[in-house]
Amino acid sequence: MNYQGTGGGQWTYTDRDGRTAVATTIGTSCANETDVTVCNLVTAVSTGNAEAQDELLFFMNSSMIGSLELGSSQAKAPTEAMPSTQTSKSNTWANVYGGTSKRASSTTQSSLDTSNAGLTIGTPVAINDTLNVDLVFNASRTSLDIGLTKDQEITANSYNFGAVLRDLAPASGWAVDAYGFVGRNSYDGKRKVMNNQEATGSETVTASYLGTEVLVGVDAQYSQAIDETLNFTSGVNASLSNEKIGAYSESKYYSWDARTLTQVAGGVTAGLEYHKDAFTSFASLGLQHSDLSSGKTAGYTNNGTAGSYTDTSGAATYRTATVGFSYAANDSMNITGAAGMSRASGGIKGSSLSLSANWTF
């Protein structure tokens, strides 16, 4: 922080991290300065949560989408290509997944370190002879550390309920699925903020806030035989999410306004899969783009003074690579596993693991 005297008892405060610093006189004596009768309270709160919310939203959504059995009744993420070998559309399935994502710090962005784990369970519901629907429940936990020294930590617990519509264009040669979810995201935050009334110059504040989300999307997969054991695979996908986050406070000094984020994402994949008896192995490369189309500005109040922050880094393009296997253990059980990695603009690096079981009772 820089500060400069502008006159008798007057100072100008500038936070060099770009935050809005607020100085007030509160009329209490300064313990260490006998000749000063009024203390200046200087506070500032970082914009890490406002700037990182779109990355957190994309990471949670892409991980959950990856746990759905899209295209071929196997897990298929925007960043993961799974085998096109068909299993029974009437099977119940479950997927356990986890992943990490990191972003290096820069002159305009804080570093990020994210990890998550989740469980998705789907079961078929009979609608009619031409429409196959799976009812799906998802639960996940995501941890986000902002800053090299973890100046801010956010834990998100997410619960989603929805449906996957299967094989919407059976005559096209493509496996086309669509999905829709409603969810509740519960956030718990802890971070250091600037406060010159504390002996260390900062204090730790906590916050709890909620988000309500709607997520819809479509995924289309195509497979073309090269020979008896080798297939070429390709796919396209798109999704739209809208999350409404309620207003919340961090200690008595800081509060954030309600905020609604709309994020669009889409991508393509291409790869190969090899079949040998009950075993299938596969590998793919892809591109995935996300963009925060609305909700880039977050309003806040620091010690009674209103301010706002606009996220200028709301878009990213991810380059992905995935390898995995699928094994038909018996007539009623199929197991699929995959590992993936991604690289994105802005110095983002990610990795993922997924294990899925599809079985008939």
Summarize the structure.
By secondary structure, the chain is mainly beta.
Structure overview:
This protein is mostly beta strands. Helices cover 6% and strands 65% of the residues. The chain has 1 helix and 22 strands. The strands form 4 sheets. Strands 7-8-9-10-11-12-13-16-17-20-21-22 form a 12-stranded antiparallel barrel. A 4-stranded antiparallel β-sheet has the order 14-15-18-19, with no helix packed on it. The protein has a two-stranded antiparallel ribbon with strand order 1-2. The radius of gyration is 25 Å and the shape is elongated. The N and C termini lie far apart (64 Å).
Output the keywords:
single chain, 361 residues, mainly beta, twelve-stranded antiparallel β-barrel, four-stranded antiparallel beta sheet, 6% helix, disordered N terminus
Note the topology.
Layout (H helix, E strand, L loop, with lengths): L1 E6 L2 E5 L7 E4 L14 E5 L3 H20 L1 E2 L3 E2 L16 E12 L8 E15 L5 E15 L5 E15 L7 E22 L6 E24 L4 E16 L2 E3 L3 E3 L2 E18 L2 E16 L2 E6 L2 E6 L4 E16 L2 E12 L3 E12 L2
Antiparallel strand pairs: 1-2, 3-4, 4-11, 5-6, 7-8, 7-22, 8-9, 9-10, 10-11, 11-12, 12-13, 13-16, 14-15, 15-18, 16-17, 17-20, 18-19, 20-21, 21-22
